[in-house]
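User: My collaborator sent over this chain with a note saying "see what the structure looks like." That's all I know about it. Can you take a look?
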Amino acid sequence: MTSNPTNLRLKEIRYWIRWLSRSFVAGRWNSYFRGRGFDFQSVAPFREDPDMVRINQKATLTSGELQVSQFSEERNASIFLLANIGPSMAFGTAETKLERLALLAAIFSYSAYRAKDSFRFVGYTDEVELGFPKPRDRSYPIMLAEAILNFDWRGKKRGGLVRAVAKVPKKKSLVVIISDHLGKLDGTERALQALAAARHEVLSIILWDERETRFPGGWGFMPLQDLETGKVQHVLVSPRSRRILERNIAERKREIESLFRGFGIQPHFFSQTSEEDLASLVQIFLALRTRV
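Assistant: Without extra context I'll predict from the sequence alone. Here is the result:
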């Protein structure tokens, strides 16, 4: 009797969530907001923060100048994860990009749950896909990961990021975009324009696989299948074809970086989901979350 691959993957995802819980989100979230909050933060001159209710008499007597107390205020954020779940994401060497997406989606939803933030997952192909579970309790991250792993991408196409962005309300939110961005970038540009107009914070994660960026060693013809159409094409692997692929991938990366940076966004390229990648990702996520 063989083990179910989905169950094995979910077991790994549970491990990473436990690791994340121990390492990063056991404490509270800090906030940039200052005012009538809950936790005392500091004192400031009354002229900089005029509020008669918060006058600090002790600090005023000590400094000889009218002082007010400032408090940190914990605010819940709205987080939207827009994820490409089209055919190109079903490709992978050790694990598919959809499997890596399932882990990342579980981690984001778990982090939102711990912070009591609003979280919504929007999966898209050439259109917004329905049927994904809605957040309810601490079991949701695993439910979401399972739904992603079981998604039937066959026969789907790409290009639905603009439609996914339309599902994000105008209220300022943290929008996480996870995709490989291997298709045309004109739709990506329109999506970023819409997000910028609404002043959303955006975190971009690009998932690439090592076999997409370089050919294996040796000579000979290698079969390549288009996961959208199912067509198989044989490509001659040689030193020249390797150089061409590497040059094309480097150019593609520059195009993606240029597009996102034009909107003030730093794209993060993941070639594999590792402990180091997740550590960096969580720190970036925490920093962006405080701006919402």
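A starting point for your reply to your collaborator: The mean pLDDT is 83.
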